[in-house]
């Protein structure tokens, strides 16, 4: 570096964009996880649209939430949203996304699906051919910006109107910093929640798989456990 050059200051990892004006769509918003996320984001002031295979079912779920949430079919939800959260059951993950490839073109897609199996011993992780649900989404949606987040949240807490804050961190994975920053900022809209960058999509399987362990924790301790990443503090707090 020459004497005339100046070194750029390190970028504050917590300097996140304003996402308050973006429309968030939730595919699978009639299920427990999707409905809970829709409720929390709408309660935080985000414009939210619930998507479902059946528009009427989505409208009924939206009416139950209130807060200005709208309900429609998955295709219309995808078209009208800036950020689309995928919260569909694993069994329908591939078919749902393949059918929405055109509607999701250019969109920021946030996959929170956990491929799990269940037997007499409890929950266990499945590994898709692509490596993870998020990587499957990226393969099916090559013209979308796919990220992974919101895997470890308790649907019970998300839907509980008496709970004001969700005390947890959200692991966010993706290929581009601009996209993961947006998802981190979206997570931070929910009181008590924080989005933490956790690597590229190739690491999504570990994050998705951890849900099986959390299910075991919750059953043993009758809890609604989440995650906290230690020793990662916002710059302004140091």
From TrEMBL:
Annotated InterPro entries: NAD(P)-bd_dom_sf, NpdG, P5C_Rdtase_cat_N, STEAP_metalloreductase
Keyword set, alphabetical order: Oxidoreductase
Highest taxon of source: Bacteria
Residues annotated as signal peptide: none
Domain Pyrroline-5-carboxylate reductase catalytic N-terminal: 24-115
Gene3D superfamilies noted in UniProt: NAD(P)-binding Rossmann-like Domain
Keyword Oxidoreductase listed: yes
SUPFAM superfamilies, sorted: NAD(P)-binding Rossmann-fold domains
Keyword Oxidoreductase recorded: yes
Protein name: NADPH-dependent F420 reductase
